[in-house]
Design brief:
The complex is a heterodimer of chains A (789) and B (296).
Chain A lengths: L1 H11 L2 H31 L1 H12 L3 H26 L6 H42 L10 H14 L12 H8 L2 H23 L2 H6 L6 H34 L23 H29 L3 H21 L7 H5 L2 H5 L1 H6 L3 E4 L2 E4 H26 L9 H14 L7 H12 L2 H15 L9 H13 L1 E2 L2 H29 L5 H16 L1 H21 L4 E2 L2 H9 L1 H28 L3 H5 L7 H32 L24 H30 L2 H21 L8 H6 L8 H25 L21
Antiparallel strand pairs in A: 1-2, 3-4
Helix pairs in contact in A: 1-10, 2-8, 2-10, 4-5, 4-21, 5-6, 7-10, 8-10, 8-11, 10-11, 10-16, 11-16, 18-27, 19-25, 19-27, 20-23, 21-22, 21-23, 25-27, 25-28, 25-29, 27-28, 28-29, 28-31
Chain B lengths: L1 E11 L2 E12 L1 E6 L6 H8 L7 E6 L2 E2 H4 L1 H4 L2 E4 L11 H11 L4 H14 L15 H13 L5 E5 L7 H14 L4 E6 L2 H5 L4 E6 L2 E6 L1 H6 L5 E6 L2 H8 L3 E7 L5 E6 L3 H7 L7 E3 L4 H9 L1
Parallel strand pairs in B: 3-8, 3-9, 6-7, 7-8
Antiparallel strand pairs in B: 1-2, 1-4, 4-5, 9-10, 11-13, 11-14, 12-13
Helix pairs in contact in B: 4-5, 5-6
Classes of the chains: A mainly alpha (789), B alpha/beta (296).
Chain lengths: 789, 296
C-alpha cells in the first residue's frame, strides 16, 4: 500500500498533466457542445416542443398516428407555401413563416421516427419468415451444423422483441454520445502519457536499476505501478465520458430514456432488449473494460520494451495489423473472427450491443458480445500476468542490441543527424525537432489535421439539402437567363402549392376519392417539400441582384454553406485557432529556453556567431515550423470545401458569399483566401517574435508559456465562447477570421501596427540575448548554483 | 560474510563484457578501477541483481543470489551513478519512498532517515525539492538511501562524481566509517577516492581482472618504474615521449621541465640517453601511475 501511495504521488506531482487533463475535459465538453449545436441545432432548440409533441402522439392509438401526422404535415406545407408567396410582398410575415417551418420540421421528424418504428416491425416479421425459409432448404437442415444452430439462435434472439412497444423520442441524445470519438482519442493520449511516466521515465533516468535492487523493487513495485496506471486511466475515462454525458444531458435532456433502444434507428438491429438508460450504463462499462484492456496491453509493451522508438514501432505494427483485419477481412470469410474479435471492434463498443452476429465456435453460434467480453478479460489477465513476470524477471540487457533496431537507429541518424553539416540552421533544426521533441508537435498537428479532414459529407437538414439541390441547378454567374430560370421555378412551385390546395379542397368536398388524392399527393409532396430550400436560394439571388445593380459588378450565385464553413464557422474556426496557437506556443517556446536550461546560452553568446547568425538560424527554424503547423492545421478546411461543399466558385467576387455582401474591396474568393493565409502567417511570425523576446526575458519555458497563454491563448478561448469579447483583438481577428465585417483600411493599419510590434520584439530580442543584459539575474543559474542552502 | 563471484561471464551477442571473472569479497572496502568498457558496470549490474550472467554465479555466504531473490536484495545497498532523481520529490519523501521499497517498517524508517540525513549533512535541505539540490547534495542523498536498510553489501558507482574536493574528502571519510562489517565495493575513475581507504583494489581491463590486491602490494609492482626527470627543452621531451609514459610535465621559473615518467626499464633507458643523477630520480609510485602504466 505504501508503494502504491508513492507511485500515485509520482504521477500526481506531474502537475502539467493534470492541467492538460482539465484542458481536455473542457475541450471535450466544448467540442461536443459545438459539434451537436452544428449538427442538431434544430432539435436542441426545439427540444421541449418536440417532447410535448412526441408525448401527445405516444398517448394516441397506434393506428391513428400515421394518418394524423400526414394530415398535419400537408396542412402545414400548404400554409407555408401560401406564406412564402405572401412574404415576398409582406416581409413582416417572415416571422410567422419561420414558426410554421419549425412546426413542419417537428412533424416531419416525428413522422420519420414513426416510419422507422413501422419498418422495425416489418424487419422482425421478415427475420422470422427468413428463418423458416432457410430451414426449408436441405443444406441448412443438418441439426449439428453451425448454420442450423445459427438460424435457430437468430430467430430466438429477435423473438423477444416481438412484444416490444417502440416509441419516438430524442434519438440524438444517445446517438451523439456513442458517436463522439474525441473522448476516445483523449483517453488514448493519456494512456500513452501515463504509460510513459509510470513505466518508461524511470528507466530512461536509470532509476530502475536502483529500484530493482531493493527488496520490494520488483513484484510489489510493478503491481503498484499497474494499479496506479489502471486507476489513472479509469479516472480520466470517467471524467472524460462524464463530461460528454453531462453535455448530452444538458443539450438533449434525459427524457425518453426508458424506451427501448430499438426505437433509435442507429441501435435497432441489436438483439438485446435494453432501455436507453441500460444501454448508457452497459456502453460505458464495456468501453471502460475496453480501455482497461488497452491499458493492460500498453503496460505490457512499456514493461517489455526498453527502447521508446521500438515500442512505438511495435505498437504501430499491432495497430496496423488489427486495423487491416478490421477493415479488409470480409464478415463471412473463414478469418471473420479476426475482424470481430479485434481492438477496433472492441473500441466501437456500440456495435457490440447493436450489431447482430454470431461467431462459429466449434459449430456453436456465440454472440459477439460474449466473445469479446471473454477476449477482453483474457487479454487483461494475460497482459497483467506477463507484465509482472517480465518486470520481475527481465534483465536490463534486453533489446540492447536488436539488429533491426540498430538498422532503425542508423537510418534515423542518417536522416536526422546533421553530423556532416556545419550549418547552424541544420543543427538548430535538429535540436528543436529531435532534442526538444518538436517533432511531437508536428505529429500532433498531423493528427489534428487528419481529424479535421471530413471523411464524408456533413449531415444536412431538409432545408439545407434542398437548397444545395437547387444550387446544383442554378449556381453560377448571375445572368439574365439564370434569373429567368429561377423565376420560372418559383412560379412552378407556386403552381404545385395551388394544386395541393385544390386537391385538399376537392377531398373535403368529396369531389375526389381518397385513393386518387393519395396517389396525386405522393407525386406532388416531394416537390412541394423542396420549396423551403428553394426560397433560401431565391432570397440569396434577390440580395445578389440588388448588389449587382448597385455596384455594377457581376455576382455569382454560389453555395452560402461553403462560404459560411470556410470563413465564419464559429466552432471549427475557434477550435482550429486554439489548436494552432497551442502547438505554436509549445513548439516555439523551447527554441531559446532550451539553451538556458542546458546552460548553453553563455557558451553560445561567447562564440563568434552566437549573437548574430545563431538568432537568424533560430528565427528561420521558427518560421519553418510555423509554416508546417499552419499548412497542416489550416489546410483541411480548404480540402473539405473542395471535396464536400459543391457549388463554390473560387473565381467569384467575395461579395457573392452572403457573409461578405457588404464588403467594399473588389477581390475574388481565391484572392481573399490567399490574403487571409498571408495575414495569418504574418500574424504568426509576429507571435514568434514576441515568443523569442519573452524567452530572452524570462529564460524559462514555463514562464514563457504562461505569458503566451495570457497574451494569445486566453483571448482565443474566451473568444470561442464569447465572440464579442476580444473581438477586435488582432490575434483573435486574424486567427478566428473575424474579418468579414472589417474595414479594409482599418485592417491594413492594424496589420501594420502588428508588424511594428514584431519588429520591436525582434530588436528587443537582439538586445536581450546578450548575457550582460540579463533581466532576471539568477534565472539562468542551474541547480548547482542553488547549493548555498 | 562473503560475496563470491565464481567464473562469471557476460556476453552481449558478439561482445564479451566480462570474461571468467572470479572474486572473493569479505568485509572491507574494495576499489574497482578500470577504463570505460572494462566491464565495471556490467559486473555491478550482475552483483546488484539487475542483470543475469551468461555463465558463472554470484553467491552470498555460499548461496546463489539468483535463488535468494528478495532476501539478497534486502542485504544490498546500491548507489547508482545517475543523478536523475524524482525532481518533484523532496529529499525526505525520496528517502521514505526508498524505505518503502526496501521494506522498512515505519518506525525503523523514520529513525534511519533521521540518522542518515544527519550523517550526510542534509538536515537543512531535506524538506526541499530535489530539483533544487546541487550535484553534491544529490550524491549524498543517494548515499543515504543506499544505507537505509543497514546493508551488508554496499555498491557505490562513482560516488564522488561531480563533487568538489571538500565534499569528495567528506564522502570518502564517511565511507570509511561505515565499512565495518560490510562489504563496500566502489567503482570509480578517481583513483584518489580509493587510494587511502580501500582494503583491496581490483583493476579490470577488457572484461577481465587484471590486478587485485592491497594498494601497497599493487604499487610495489611498479617500484623503480616511476621517475622524475629534469629536461632543458621540449626537443628532449619529444624524443622521450616515444619511449616513456609521461604522467605530468611542470615548467619551473628557469623554464626547465620536470617530467614524471613511467616505463618498464627506466635504468637502461636513462643510461642509453646519457641521463645521470640528479637529472633524474626514482619516486614513490601512486595509484595514478599504476593506472597509467596499465592503461596507457
Amino acid at each position: 500500500m505504501k508503494l502504491l501511495g508513492f507511485e500515485l504521488t509520482k504521477l500526481l506531482y506531474k502537475r502539467m498533466l493534470w492541467v492538460i487533463l482539465l484542458g481536455c475535459l473542457l475541450g471535450n465538453a466544448a467540442f461536443f457542445y459545438f459539434e451537436q449545436v452544428k449538427s442538431h441545432s434544430f432539435i436542441i432548440q426545439q427540444r421541449d416542443q418536440f417532447k410535448t409533441l412526441a408525448q401527445q402522439y405516444i398517448k394516441m392509438p397506434a393506428e391513428a398516428v400515421s394518418p394524423d401526422l400526414e394530415h398535419r404535415i400537408n396542412q402545414l406545407q400548404q400554409r407555408m407555401d401560401q406564406g412564402y408567396a405572401a412574404s415576398l410582398e409582406q416581409p413582416e410575415m417572415m416571422e410567422q413563416l419561420q414558426q410554421l417551418s419549425t412546426e413542419l420540421q417537428l412533424y416531419l421528424l416525428l413522422q420519420e421516427q414513426y416510419t422507422h418504428i413501422a419498418d422495425h416491425t416489418v424487419f422482425l416479421e421478415q427475420l422470422a419468415s427468413k428463418a423458416d425459409d432457410m430451414l426449408s432448404v436441405s443444406i441448412f437442415q443438418k441439426q449439428d451444423s453451425f448454420s442450423y444452430r445459427n438460424i435457430i439462435a437468430t430467430a430466438q434472439a429477435f423473438e423477444r422483441q416481438g412484444t416490444l412497444t417502440l416509441q419516438p423520442g430524442i434519438n440524438e441524445q444517445v446517438e451523439s454520445f456513442f458517436k463522439h470519438r474525441l473522448q476516445d482519442y483523449i483517453i488514448l493520449f493519456f494512456m500513452l502519457v501515463f504509460g510513459f511516466f509510470i513505466f518508461h521515465q524511470e528507466r530512461e533516468n536509470k532509476m530502475d536499476l536502483l529500484i530493482r535492487s531493493t527488496k520490494h523493487g520488483r513484484r510489489q513495485t510493478i503491481l503498484s505501478k499497474l494499479m496506479v496506471y489502471f486507476v489513472a486511466i479509469s479516472f480520466v475515462f470517467f471524467f472524460v465520458f462524464g463530461s460528454s454525458f453531462a453535455m448530452t444531458s444538458y443539450l438533449y435532456g434525459m427524457d425518453f430514456i426508458e424506451r427501448s433502444i430499438q426505437s433509435v434507428p442507429g441501435l435497432s438491429r441489436g438483439q438485446y432488449v435494453l432501455s436507453i438508460a441500460q444501454f448508457f450504463i452497459i456502453f460505458i462499462l464495456l468501453k471502460w473494460l475496453a480501455f482497461l484492456m488497452l491499458a493492460a496491453l500498453s503496460a505490457l509493451l512499456f514493461v517489455a520494451i526498453r527502447h521508446l522508438g521500438q515500442l512505438l514501432l511495435i505498437a504501430a505494427s499491432i495497430i496496423a495489423i488489427q486495423y487491416a483485419s478490421y477493415i479488409f477481412i470480409h464478415p463471412y470469410s473463414p478469418a471473420g473472427a479476426l475482424k470481430f474479435v479485434n481492438l477496433f471492434y472492441v473500441l466501437q463498443t456500440d456495435q457490440l450491443l447493436t450489431y447482430y452476429r454470431n461467431l462459429n465456435l466449434f459449430g456453436y453460434p456465440v454472440p459477439l458480445l460474449q466473445t469479446n467480453l471473454v477476449f477482453l478479460l483474457l487479454a487483461i489477465i494475460i497482459s497483467v500476468a506477463a507484465s509482472v513476470w517480465i518486470y520481475c524477471k527481465k534483465l536490463s540487457e534486453t533489446s540492447a542490441n536488436v539488429t533491426w533496431l540498430a538498422v532503425f537507429d542508423k537510418l534515423k541518424s542518417k536522416l536526422l543527424r546533421p553530423t556532416s553539416s556545419y550549418s547552424l540552421f541544420v543543427h538548430e533544426w535538429y535540436k528543436n525537432m529531435i532534442s526538444n521533441k518538436g517533432i511531437v508537435f508536428i505529429i500532433c498537428a498531423l493528427f489534428f489535421g487528419y481529424i479535421g479532414l471530413q471523411q464524408e459529407p456533413i449531415a444536412l437538414d431538409h432545408i439545407e439539402r434542398t437548397y444545395l439541390e437547387y444550387m446544383g441547378k442554378f449556381s453560377g454567374p448571375l445572368t439574365e437567363q439564370r434569373i429567368e430560370q429561377i423565376e420560372q421555378e418559383k412560379e412552378r412551385l407556386q403552381g404545385i402549392s395551388n394544386e395541393i390546395q385544390h386537391l385538399e379542397q376537392a377531398l373535403l368536398e368529396k369531389k375526389i376519392e381518397l385513393s386518387g388524392y393519395s396517389s396525386q399527393m405522393t407525386l406532388l409532396m416531394p416537390q412541394a417539400n423542396a420549396s423551403s430550400g428553394f426560397y433560401k436560394l431565391y432570397d440569396q439571388m434577390r440580395s445578389l441582384l440588388m448588389l449587382q445593380q448597385s455596384t455594377g459588378q457581376q455576382q455569382t450565385l454560389m453555395s452560402a454553406t461553403a462560404g459560411q464553413y470556410l470563413f465564419a464557422h464559429p466552432f471549427r474556426v475557434s477550435l482550429t485557432a486554439i489548436i494552432y496557437m497551442t502547438l505554436l506556443m509549445l513548439s516555439l517556446s523551447t527554441i531559446i529556453t532550451s539553451d538556458y536550461r542546458s546552460g548553453m546560452h553563455l557558451l553560445q553568446c561567447s562564440s563568434r556567431f552566437g549573437q548574430t547568425k545563431l538568432l537568424r538560424s533560430k528565427r528561420a527554424v521558427s518560421y519553418i515550423i510555423i509554416c508546417f503547423l499552419y499548412i497542416i492545421v489550416f489546410l483541411p478546411p480548404f480540402l473539405n470545401v473542395l471535396n464536400y461543399y459543391p457549388h463554390f466558385y473560387w473565381n467569384a467576387p467575395i461579395q457573392s458569399i452572403p457573409l461578405f455582401e457588404h464588403y467594399t474591396w473588389t477581390v475574388k474568393v481565391w484572392q481573399w483566401s490567399l490574403l487571409v493565409v498571408l495575414l495569418q502567417l504574418a500574424a504568426s511570425f509576429v507571435i514568434s517574435e514576441v515568443i523569442f523576446m519573452l524567452s530572452y526575458l524570462m529564460k524559462k519555458q514555463v514562464l514563457v508559456l504562461g505569458c503566451c497563454i495570457v497574451l494569445f491563448l486566453f483571448p482565443l478561448i474566451t473568444g470561442a465562447f464569447y465572440p464579442h469579447l476580444f473581438a477586435s483583438y488582432p490575434v483573435n481577428r486574424l486567427l478566428m477570421l473575424q474579418l468579414y465585417n472589417a474595414d479594409p483600411n482599418g485592417l491594413l493599419v492594424q496589420l501594420a501596427l502588428f508588424i511594428i510590434i514584431g519588429l520591436i520584439c525582434a530588436f528587443a530580442s537582439r538586445l536581450l540575448l546578450r548575457p550582460y543584459t540579463n533581466w532576471r539575474r539568477g534565472a539562468s543559474l542551474g541547480a548547482n548554483d542553488s547549493s548555498s542552502f | 560474510m562473503e560475496l563470491t563471484i565464481h567464473h562469471l561471464s557476460k556476453q552481449y551477442r558478439q561482445i564479451t563484457a566480462i570474461h571468467n571473472v572470479s572474486l572473493q569479497l569479505s568485509s572491507g572496502i574494495y576499489g574497482l578501477l578500470g577504463p570505460n568498457g572494462a566491464g565495471k558496470s556490467t559486473l555491478i549490474k550482475i552483483i546488484t541483481a539487475n542483470l543475469q550472467a551468461t555463465s558463472g554465479t554470484v553467491s552470498w555466504n555460499g548461496q546463489n543470489i539468483a535463488a535468494m531473490g528478495d532476501h539478497y536484495r534486502s542485504l544490498l545497498g546500491y548507489m547508482p551513478q545517475q543523478q536523475e532523481l524524482y525532481s518533484d520529490f523532496t529529499g525526505n519523501r525520496f528517502l521514505r519512498y526508498m524505505a518503502a521499497l526496501k521494506g522498512l517498517e515505519k518506525k525503523e524508517a523514520e529513525e534511519r532517515i533521521a540518522h542518515l540525513v544527519e550523517v550526510v549533512n542534509l538536515q537543512e535541505v531535506i524538506h526541499k525539492k530535489i530539483s533544487a539540490y546541487s550535484g553534491g547534495m544529490k550524491q549524498r542523498l543517494l548515499i543515504a538511501q543506499a544505507l537505509l536498510n543497514d546493508p551488508k553489501v554496499i555498491i557505490l558507482d562513482e560516488p564522488t562524481a561531480g563533487l568538489d574536493p571538500k565534499e569528495r574528502i567528506n564522502i570518502r571519510n564517511f565511507i570509511s566509517t561505515i565499512a565495518a562489517n560490510k562489504i563496500v565495493l566502489i567503482a570509480t575513475h578517481v583513483v584518489q577516492d580509493i587510494e587511502y581507504i580501500a582494503k583491496e583494489i581490483i583493476v579490470m581491463k577488457k572484461g577481465e581482472i587484471l590486478l587485485k590486491g592491497h594498494p601497497e602490494q599493487l604499487l610495489s609492482s611498479i617500484k623503480q618504474k616511476v621517475a622524475l626527470l629534469q629536461l632543458d627543452d621540449e626537443q628532449a621531451l619529444a624524443s622521450l615521449q616515444q619511449k616513456l609514459i609521461i604522467s605530468s610535465i611542470i615548467r619551473d621559473y628557469e623554464q626547465k621541465l620536470h617530467v614524471r615518467v613511467i616505463a618498464d626499464d627506466l635504468a637502461n633507458l636513462f643510461e642509453s640517453a646519457s641521463f645521470i643523477e640528479p637529472a633524474y630520480q626514482y619516486v614513490q609510485p601512486t595509484l595514478e601511475d599504476l593506472y597509467l602504466y596499465y592503461f596507457h
